[in-house]
Structure formats: C-alpha cells, structure tokens
Amino acid sequence: MMRALAAFVFVLSLPLSTAAAQDLPRSNIPNVIAPAGLEAERVSVVVDRGLTSNKGLRSRALRVARDALHAGEPVAADQLRSLAEAGDGLAAQRYVRLLQAKKAQGTPSDIAYFSAIAVGTGRIWTLGAMIDAMHTLNPETEPKARVRKYIQVLYPHAWAGNRLAFEAVVDFNGAARLFGPLSERTRARILEEAQKQGDGRIELGMAMGLLERATDKDRASGSDLTDARALLQVAVQSKHLGVSTTAANLLQQTAPADGAHE
Question: Alpha helices, DSSP H only, in the chain?
Fold first, then answer.
C-alpha cells in the first residue's frame, strides 16, 4: 500500500513548487485552487524606513547621485549599489532592475539581497524578484548577514497576509534549506496563518511532505502517518473542492487496516 501511496503523492505534487512546512524532504502543494490574486501579493509592510535623507551620506558624489535619483535622472550602477547599501530603497529597486537586465554585474544573491532592501522600505513590487532569486541560493554558502535580512523582510510580510511572502517562509524553513531547521514557534505560526487563510493548501502540503517521508524507511518517523492524517483532517474541511477532494483521497489511501490503530 505504501508504494502505491508514494506514487499517488508524487503525481499530486507535480503542478506547483511550494514546499511542505516541515523539517523534511521537499514536497509540492498541488495547484488545486485559483491563485489568491494580486491583492494578497500587494500586502506591504515597511520593515525599515532606510535612508530618508542625505545626512547619512559622507560622500558628496553620493549625495549628488541621490538627489539625481529622486529627481528621476539616470544614476550609474555603482552609485546605485552604494546608495542601496546605505539603505536607500529606491536605489535598491533601480539596481535590481539593472541586475535583472544584465546591465550591471552581480549574482543571484545580489538580486535577492538588494530586492530585500527595496521590499523592506515598502517597495513590494520587488518581492517576486527577491523570492525567485532566493530559490537559486546555496544555503551553505549564502552569507548569514544576507539570510538575516531575508528573514527580517519576509516574516513581517508573511504574518501581515502577503501570500507570496507566506509561501516563501514555508518554503525556506527546514533542514538543508536557506533559513535552516523549522522551529516549533515558526511551525505554530505557519499553521495559525494557514488557518486564517482557510483554503487548506498549506496543511495539505505539510501532510504530503510527511507522507513522502513516511514512505522512506531511512527517513521515516513513527509519528509521520499520524501527524499527516491530522493535517489532512483539517484540509478536508476546505471550502475549495480541489483541496478537500485531494485530502479526502489521501485520508482514504492512508486509512489504517481493520483492527489496526493509528
């Protein structure tokens, strides 16, 4: 039965790459409901006001460059980077655009980091670029200071209801992932926020991650199946037919045999 279950979970997991919020192998949440829409992606939080005047700039050249930037005039890439490093969110956003267009030399880490600076100052349109770049980063080599910046920016947006940020928090927590092992406190907050959303996708994805691990004897925990079924019991109550049907099918697939106990 477990071999058949493994195949079932694999087939369900193909459409969308959103990882399960567990300290275990990645598992995908099936795209069985319509996207949340732009409103859920536009929720913005000012985490850091950043550079709001020229007072913190010691270089006259940077002060002149910042005045030009905010007047809508062209500014050189190296000056944009310096201004962004000083905390200017607009400069960070403009610099990210140059990096994306390959008009300035940089790495995916640079795109993620400077996007985080921009998003932290309220420029939410750079969030997608930040998350896309983060998916390419190596957790073992990414500078810790940059990882702290990603966390500083993503968590407040996730808890404020931004769907992109929330799913990124789910995705980047876990062993061998960018944010490291999932803490019990974060796991509880993820479940709390998922319950507020009420569509059951996160619970379904978490259950699928546990079921994926339960099929691997080398990685399985004795409570995986029980914990997965508890999450599925939540997901099956979703008002979205795709989520509830998928959860119901998985509950049926994982039902204990007659006379057995979970």
Answer: 2-12, 38-42, 60-70, 77-85, 89-100, 108-120, 127-134, 144-160, 163-172, 184-197, 201-214, 224-235, 241-253
Instruction: Taking each helix axis as running N to C, give the angle between helix 241-253 and helix 201-214, from 0 to 180 degrees, rounded to the nearest 10.
Output: 20
Q: Are 191 and 203 in contact (CB under 8 A)?
A: yes
Q: Residue 161 carries which side chain, given as an amino acid letter? A: G
pTM: 0.76
Sequence-distant (≥ 6) Cβ neighbours of residue 32 within 8 angstroms:
15, 201, 240, 242, 243, 245, 246
pLDDT digits (tens, 9 = 90+) for 156-182: 999 998 988 998 998 899 888 999 988
Name the residue ranges covered by the structural domains of the chain.
Answer: 41-174, 198-255
Distance of CA 200 to the CA centre of its chain: 17
Closest Cα partner for 15 from 2, 32, 3, 1?
Answer: 32
Least confident of 13-17, 35-39, 54-58, 119-123: 13-17
Are the beta carbons of 244 and 234 closer than 8 angstroms? no
* Cα–Cα distance, 203 to 191 (Å, whole number): 7
